[in-house]
Each structure stands twice: as C-alpha cells, then as structure tokens.
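Page 37, top half.
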Amino acid sequence: MSKKIMTLVLAMAFTVGVAGVSLAAKSATCEVKAIDGNTVTLECKDTKGLKEGMKVKVKSAVKKAVEGC
C-alpha cells in the first residue's frame, strides 16, 4: 500500500513542478517595426522582465484559413 501512495505523491509533485515552469514563461505581444538584414526591430506593449541583450524566442502569429461552402 505504501508503494502506491509514494508513487501517487511523486506523480503529483512532478505535475506541479512542470505546471510551475510553464507558468513562469513570459510572453509579450509585439509588432515588427523594421527589418534590416538580420536585425528585426520590435515594438512590444509589455516589456516587464525583458532586458537589453537578453535572448528571446519569437514565434509568428498563426493565421487560420477561411473555408467556405
């Protein structure tokens, strides 16, 4: 019986840990203002937690296709 309880406790701890990491990730809504070669200038609304020289990951917006009859 104690093996089952220990397994349940460890599984719950793992789930809470993974959820905490995913909630810690920051996101911001930005608009591309200029592109010059490999340099992209973004204008963001919420810049809390961002610092100059910090590496960020940029993901383009997904546009859904409109299907008709």
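Page 37, bottom half:
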Amino acid sequence: MSRDDEDLRINTLYALTKRSPRVVLEEHSHCEVPAGCGGVVLRWLDPTLGVDGYLRVATLGQVAVWIDGAPVTNLWVQLSPGAHVIAVELVALPEEPSPFAFAFAPQTTEQPRPEIRPGRDWRWHGSPPEGWAAPETEVAAWAACKDGTTLYDALETNVGWRFRRIVESGIPPLRVMGPRVVLRGVLDVEPV
C-alpha cells in the first residue's frame, strides 16, 4: 500500500463508524464555520461521566458564567448528575430593569430533552463580596430575583429573539438592573 493510500484510509469518515457501548459519537453542523456552510464537528462522549448539553444565556449586557466555581469557557458542557452552583456576572447592562434568562439544554442520542431550569431560588447582588462565585459562599442574605416576564414582553423583536427559545420552553426570565449585577442559582441535573 502506498503512502497516499494509507492517508486516504486514515482520513476518511470510515474511522468514525466504530461502535462502543461506552462512548457516543456526537455530530454538530453549523453554517458559522470560517469557510462558510458545510462545517461539521465530531466528538466522542462518555455518557457515564455526565449529561452533555449546552448552556443558553440571554441578556442585554455582557455575561460571564461559572459552574461550581470554575469559569465556563465553552457553552457546550458535560455536567455530572446532581446539584450545580451557577454563578453569573452581567456587565454593561442598561440602567433600567431588563430581563435575563438561563437554561441548560441536555442532549441525548435518542432525542433532545427539555431544557433544565435552575431552581427559583436565584439570588442577586450589586456589589458582591470577594469570592462570590465559589460554591461555598453564603448567598442567603442576597436579594431574591424577581420575575422579568413583563420586561421580556416589552422587548423589541431585534433583541427579544435572544430570549425566545428559553422563554418558549417554559422558563421565565428574571428581572435584573445594571450596570453590573451578579446572580447565583442551583441547577439540578438528573441522570440520563
């Protein structure tokens, strides 16, 4: 076999047709790849390590998210079953009240599962203490978040689309006020 034939055999999708009871081949295609439409991302997942999915976050400002005290650098995450502390920092918010929405959208090989909403015990603070994103930080004295559905309803279509998918899945937005606010909530993930 020549070197060219070996390269062709190694670089084919045939290498991805293997099956395993322990891992799942996940495929994502999207039109936002640098070369235009037609891009695809393939990765192997071990479902025994947790529930794979993506975070949905909608705000009128800029956002940073931490899960269990670790900063989130990619909205595709794998979460182990159980409770997870979600910490969110919103900056560059409007001075008047605005909506904020958050959900975790699990993915399975059979069918998409419904979005998982964090518990209704979201708390917020305008000037949080040092280490506020750490799971062990006590937030009982922080203010409880209020429903922001009326704020979402008042949004114009050119910004309301950011929230639509979360709100249509039954998760109401929260009311936040800028220019900076931090929020904490708990996300309970059930096993697949």
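Margin note: The chain has three helices and 13 strands.
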